[in-house]
Amino acid sequence: MIIVEKRFLNNNPFLHIVKKSGQQERLPFIIFTHGFTSAKENNLHYAYLFAEKGFRVILPEAIYHGEREQGLTERDLYGHFWEIVITTIHELNSYKEYYVEEGLADPEKIGLAGTSMGGIVTLGALTKYKWVKAAVSLMGMPAYEEYLYWQLAQMKNLGVSLSVTDEQIQEQLSVLRQYDLSLQPNKLENRPLLLWHGKKDPIVPFELTYRFYQSVKGNYHTNPDNIHFITDEHADHKVSREGLKAMVEWFEKHLLH
56 with 21: CB under 8 angstroms? Predict the structure, then answer.
């Protein structure tokens, strides 16, 4: 039997999913972060499959999303995109600390994953937290600086007037570079990383992720099985069933055995 509970940490809501038989045990632990404009409940199918395998899983609610929404329009929300990413990265540590201190998460078996914005969060978190033992990014990308420039170009092409100065952009970049894994690939430290991306993705460019993979895979020459890139030739911004299965198998392989 799988238990799904709504809980709060620092007044922030999240879902906790675990097998009833292991409810009080110290288990391998996965934090799965949702995408932009999504909500924690939308990823219960991922959590259920993890829990069935014996993981303890939590689905945090990102700031300005779901139960934490503040009535922002999608366009307003987009203006807070990087604030949401950075805030979520910081909040991940609080969840990890809580579950490890409670004796419910094995500190040597902690995984991070997410879709889209959640994948971007996951890859940024690898620059900050050595406690992440394995990671999966579905439709995310690590090149924060390049992606910001891409976002600005997209808005310009759409005729959206930008109310930001060059100085503000440079300030934003100076913050983002601290979390940009493509600028500090040594922070990966050969940790298991699976990347899944649809080639026709119009939201998070496939090329940004694939280029990063090509640049770092040589660093894994002593353990090449620890990095893998799955290209879906036909997918746009939606994870396939194959991508879902590959993620579950990745964590089984790298955190359970």
Answer: no
Q: Using alpha carbons, list the distances in angstroms from residue 33 to 160, 218, 220, 234, 241.
A: 29, 28, 26, 24, 18
- Report pLDDT digits (tens) over 67-89: 999 988 887 888 899 999 999 99
28-52 tens-digit pLDDT: 999 999 999 999 999 999 999 999 9
What pTM, to 2 d.p., does this model score?
0.95
- Pairing type for strands 2-9 and 12-19 reads antiparallel
3-class DSSP state of 165: coil
- What tokens appear for 134 in the block? 């394995």
Contact call for residues 34 and 115 (beta carbons, < 8 A):
yes
CB 137 within 8 A of CB 119: yes
At the fourth CATH level, the homologous superfamily of domain 2-256 is: Alpha/Beta hydrolase fold, catalytic domain (3.40.50.1820)
